[in-house]
Write a structure and sequence with these properties.
Strand order of the largest sheet: 5-6-4-7
Helix content: 25-40%
Largest sheet: 4 strands, antiparallel
Strand content: 25-35%
Shape: globular
Length: 127
């Protein structure tokens, strides 16, 4: 099964410093890329699992590590929130793992449980 990364539960615009990041692309203040906006809107209804995740890293750093379709919202200079979706909680957990940053997930419950099990599995894998 081919999995896609996308997530836009709320308004797809986000401000990152003096730029807007819309569906993964940084643009100077002003209108976002229309094609990306439309694709993000079409995809948001198709994901079975969606998550808003607090990431303890600057939005600019995290934006560089994610596909263009993922929304990144700056909270402050050291924290951001990403909104992502996937067909399975397993794939969402995989995407979060490649961030190489601490993060917090509170929903959906399937993702919370899967990450908990992964943490336990990784702990058992080391002496």
């Amino acid at each position: 099964m081919r999995d896609r990364v996308l997530g836009v539960e709320q308004a797809p615009d986000a401000v990152v410093g003096s730029e807007h990041r819309h569906a993964g692309r940084l643009h100077p203040q002003g209108a976002p890329d229309l094609e990306t906006y439309v694709m993000a809107g079409l995809g948001q209804a198709s994901w079975r699992f969606r998550a808003r995740v607090t990431v303890h890293a600057p939005a600019e750093v995290i934006a560089e590590r994610l596909p263009p379709a993922v929304t990144v919202e700056a909270v402050d200079d050291h924290t951001c929130v990403i909104t992502a979706g996937s067909d399975t909680p397993h794939m969402l957990a995989l995407y979060l793992g490649v961030l190489d940053a601490d993060f917090e997930v509170t929903e959906p419950p399937e993702l919370v449980e899967h990450i908990r099990r992964l943490g336990e599995r990784y702990s058992r894998a080391t002496p």
